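Below is a complete specimen:
___
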Amino acid sequence: MSEAKLFTQAELDAIVDERVKRAKTKHEVELEAIRDEVVKAPEGAADYEGAADKVTAEVERLKAELAEVEKESKPIIAKSQLLKAGYSDDQAERYSKFIVGGSITVDELKTDIKPKGSKGGNSNHADPGQKHNKGSVWNPFS
């Protein structure tokens, strides 16, 4: 039978220290390589950052432009809605600011102020624009 080699405590400590030192060095090198990859910016990263800044600025400019267009188009849309509802040009011009301001809708306005020439309102008044059949007589009591 072969005899097992016995180590003194000092020899054992030296072997363990050497192994720990090699493992530590190996891991430090691997860790440094990983850090370099993480920290190192990819080639052209500055170009990407500059492009991102340009895109962000363009988005903000377009948002401001859209807000301005919406602001300018609200009176035109309101006037168009009033004209479509039967209001005259003068009425549409006069009442569109109330629609734009959001204080009233076109339907609410129609209940309070009838469009010129509409058939709503007081039915006791004759409509001068209405065509009558020949031979028919207007009877105010019918």
In short: The chain is about 65% helix and 0% strand.
